[in-house]
Amino acid sequence: MSQIDARSAATADNGAAGSVRNKGDARQMAPMQEVAARLERVLRAEGVPVDDARITAAHMVEGTARGYVYHGVERIFQLLDGFDHGTQRPAAPRRTVKDGPGFAVLECEGGLGPPTAEAAMEIAIGKADDVGIATVGVLNAGHLGILAPWAEMAARAGKLGVALTASEPGVVVPGGRTAILGTNPIAYSFPVDGVVLSADFSTAATTRSVLLDHRDRGEPLPPGVAVDEEGKPTQDPEAALRGGLLPLGYGLKAAFFSVLISVIAGPLVGGVANHHVTGTRWMTSPPRKADTFIAIDIAQLTDVATFTDEVRGLLERIQDDVPGFYVPGTGAQRRRERAEREGIPVSARLADLLGLNRSDR
Buried (b) or exposed (e) across 297-329, using 16+ Cβ within 10 A? Predict the structure, then answer.
């Protein structure tokens, strides 16, 4: 099969690395395994259970390794801020509040996102084995990090996996002046010819982290991604923070897509509507939102060989027509392979937290 990524070469991964580098922030490269082990120790010191610390640290490293520098290891500071505020709980219990043959809902009470996401998708996969299609909702867990690994869990089990989450308001519906929607990312994954393909992207024109990075560096935003508090286009990050980002594609259809995600990862599973979501970026409030994980057993719906042939043909046809178009997830995988060889970028602040500069390493 031709090698394709989730987007054409003309469009960078939404929120993925390469898009923005913090020029004023000296970064050093560190081995993935060492960063994961040191992050795990930091989390354990905060009272995070052993397995949850391991899953969370590994997932943060995975985000950075795949190139999502704003949704990876640097998010440890958001977690620590939440612990300090008491809005993120290091050892919150997870309990099942709804359960059925093809669905479940978990209440997390401010617990960590990554271990909850892993548990939720495991449940969805198991239920899909039994009934073909399963949905698991998660209530009030912390930030999930990148979504693709959770969808890929389903793909590795022969399923089509989908992961969706709603984030606190930061996106203005075109024509409006108030941030009502979140950046509301979605990831999907499925297997083709033994290869797990996946895409992971925000439904906003850019991510909130990119916006904050531009503000911190004093650099203008790209044109067409944000509006000010009057609903007028702006490249000023401060004005964009008072107004909001625009949806992916900048039009109402993109806003409708974001609304759909916010409903599926929200009221559909018992969560709050998007304008009430808190705690996904600013930790002065506890996580109040929903996430949804879906697993669809391909073999129970169709012949797997037919599915594979049709999807392969579609992707190859797209590549023939669009030079530079890549199989979903290939770009992230290449970045990860490079990170395994060269390490991942770590800010000076994080290096200090992890003790990476000490002589006793």
Answer: bbeeeeeeeebbeebeeebeeebeeeeebbbbb
CATH fold of 92-328, please? Answer: Ribosomal Protein S8; Chain: A, domain 1 (3.30.1370)
First to last CA, the chain: 43
Cα distances from 248 to residues 40, 162, 184, 225, 317, in angstroms, run 35, 19, 10, 8, 25
Q: At what angle do helices 148-156 and 113-131 cross, to 10 degrees?
A: 30
DSSP for 107-160 reads E-TT--HHHHHHHHHHHHHHHHHHHSEEEEEEES------SHHHHHHHHHTTEE
Amino acid of residue 141: A
92 three-state secondary structure:
coil
Dihedral sign from CA coordinates of 135, 141, 143, 145: negative
E strands of 184-238, at which residues? 186-192, 195-201, 226-227
Report the C-alpha gap between 207 and 145 in whole angstroms: 13
Nearest 5°: the CA angle 177, 180, 185 is 125
Q: HSE on the CB side for 41, CA within 13 Å?
A: 9
Q: From the first residue on, what is the mean pLDDT of each consecutive set of 10 residues in the chain (361 residues)?
A: 31 38 67 98 98 98 93 95 96 96 98 98 98 98 96 98 96 94 97 95 89 88 93 94 91 93 98 96 94 98 97 95 89 94 96 81 50
Please give the structure tokens belonging to residue 59.
């997932």
Please give the model's pTM, rounded to 2 decimal places. 0.91
Instruction: Give CA angle at 68 (206, 179), nearest 5°.
Output: 30
Enumerate the domain spans of the chain: 92-328
Which 3 state secondary structure label does DSSP give 99? Answer: strand
Helix 32-45 and helix 76-85, axial crossing angle in degrees, nearest 10: 0
